[in-house]
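re the bet — no i am not wrong, look at it urself. input seq straight from the record:
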Amino acid sequence: MMKKAIVILMVLGSAACAKAQTIESGSRSTIGYIKSDGTIEDRSHSTKGYIKSDGTIEDRSHSTIGYIKSDGTIENRSHSTVGYVKKDGTVEDRSHSTLGYIKDDGTVEDRSHSTLGYARGIKKEWAAVAYFFFKF
């Protein structure tokens, strides 16, 4: 359940504007949304969870399922590190092996630079968790 909830939360990303940001698959189909208040929705607009301003990730029942640290470290609910997102968008697993990249334009790529999806306007850390650590 933690993996699924974090995936949904991270794919749906962070919104800086008043309307919801759309998250797309590699084929450009909508897979979810995030509202400016941190509410995470699937493509049918069902609430799946929340991302708080302090980096805490909650499921739809408001139970904590993980954390995004200010340095790009991604942790599970037990505070065990599951990966890292570097400032340049490189995504690494807990052993520092490269998993992929989040480009400045929101394109999400695997380690071979094949496009996995699009997360424009979404924080790199949130997109990385969704696409690489929990395989949305």
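see?? The chain has two helices and twelve strands. told u. also The chain has a mean pLDDT of 81. so pay up
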